[in-house]
Model the fold of this input.
Amino acid sequence: KLGISSEVSFLPSVSSHEKEGLLATCTCVLYTPENEHFGIVPLEAMLASRPVLACDSGGPVESIIDGVTGFLCAPKPEVGERCGQAQLSSWSHFLYTNLTEISYQQVFASAMKRISNDSTVARRMGILARMHVERKFSRNAFGERLQAIMRIELKQHDVSATFIAFYTVTALFVSLFSLLLWLSYLTKVKS
Done:
């Protein structure tokens, strides 16, 4: 219909090596599941310094900063809904505000056009996307947040370090014992 079938490839299951190659050569990542759970794809793309165009629902709302690290596009846009509206060209803005019906394909296409027409936009968004993922979703970031939560909880409940050490050792012992029981059960089942 659009005459681009020779330019589009669908790759249903790629290896990690292939995925890294694809992320290294693409301009942006299009992520279209609606109401998707958290989703690792946007994080992988942003870690590879690629902006993400995704539905404005589910997990991407938590991981993508609209207009900064990519664009959040209304999955079934209504009049006045947006997809990085502040970043779109005046023509796209006109379409957005003056058409009574606009398809989600048009919304994603407008955002893709904005990124692909100006390489500095894609590059800037990609750099900011990587910084965002490293700051908010890295192991260090999760560890720091977990420690902060634990410090707050410990202060609120006045829990001593001795109790924490005892609890940790006990939890490890119970886990190890459970694992040994499970392995023993599996050995008996196989016999």
The mean pLDDT is 78. Strands lie at 29-31, 52-55, 70-73.
